[in-house]
Amino acid sequence: MQATERLRVAVLGVGHLGTFHARILAQRPDVELAAVIDASAERAQKIGAELGVAPRTLAGRTPADVLAALPAGTRAVVIAVPTVAHAEVAVPLLESGVACLVEKPLAHDLDSARAILGAAARGRALLSVGHVERFQPGLRKVRELGIVPRFIECQRLAPFSFRSTDIGVVHDLMIHDLDLVRFLVGSPVASVDSAGGAILTDHEDMASVRLVFENGARANITASRASLQPVRRLRLFSSSAYVSLDLHKNYGLVVKKGPRWVEGRSALSNLTPEEIAARTDLVSSGMLELLELDLSGHDRPLQAELDSFLASVRSGVAPEVSGEDGYRALELAERIAAEIRAQAW
Length: 345
Description:
The chain has helices at residues 16-26, 41-51, 63-69, 86-95, 110-123, 137-145, 169-185, 261-268, 273-278, 301-315, 323-343; strands at 7-12, 31-38, 55-57, 76-79, 99-103, 127-130, 151-157, 189-197, 206-213, 218-224, 231-237, 241-246, 251-257, 288-294. With 345 residues, the protein is an alpha/beta fold. It folds into two domains: 7-125, NAD(P)-binding Rossmann-like Domain (Rossmann fold), CATH 3.40.50; 134-300 and 332-343, Dihydrodipicolinate Reductase, domain 2, CATH 3.30.360.10. The strands form two sheets. An eight-stranded mixed sheet has the order 8-9-10-7-11-12-13-14, covered by helices on one side. A six-stranded parallel sheet has the order 3-2-1-4-5-6, with helices on both faces. Helix 4 packs parallel to helix 5, helix 5 (110-123) packs antiparallel against helix 11 and helix 7 packs across helix 11. The longest helix has 21 residues, at 323-343.
């Protein structure tokens, strides 16, 4: 395929998140948004009219229905239908060789997730999963700096949105951070200690977990969808640095040993705690190095996610967030949610 050739892409499911995908794709000069597809004809027509794109209605969830809804020549599909329908729509597309970006979580259970992975293998189709937080500029910067965390603390709190009530907060919100910590630590999970329970829905609305990894790293993760204010914070500690990221405000801070750390520590050993407290020049003297990460001018994560997916479709290179990544995050989420359910809170 020539680099200038427009790629035919469709969005299947144009609810809240699918609409954002469709709007971004419609603005890309290298993409032809072939159709917006939804089970609701009214919703498909509304978004199609807004974007000047052909609307199509998904008549049912059989493989024939799914394939019939797809315009001829479509190379890639963004799947943003409800989680319970992911496998029903993704499997026939992948078996037909159509590249798919499936919104997170990959599926509503592990059997369905395995069916999706199997379909991608049979159809030799590219499969990516929409763990969009991987594309946060702060996370990208941490990776660029080569920081390998030994302890991670995550908070993801949100007001109740009345969406995604078919799943609990572990699969709705926490799964973002489960994917992130697995990605950052790069080691299998050795043990899980979970707590949480239902507050507003029939599923858990608050969850907290402590993860221990096989390489000795630890992570504490808290998620809630019953909070008054949104919070998305990540703190990473390593032997070389401390990193604080506010993903809601798109700001980060890195604290490292400065060039005069060894020399300065030797000098401080002769001072009393009161004298040290009075020293206001310790940072400016070079003992510590503070790096502010002003990330406000960077691309939006959803835009970067689509950039990455489309680049993989064009090149055939493995996606940044693979189907296997999505499966491992779901597998961990299932383990945590099952432990919470067993507590009968």
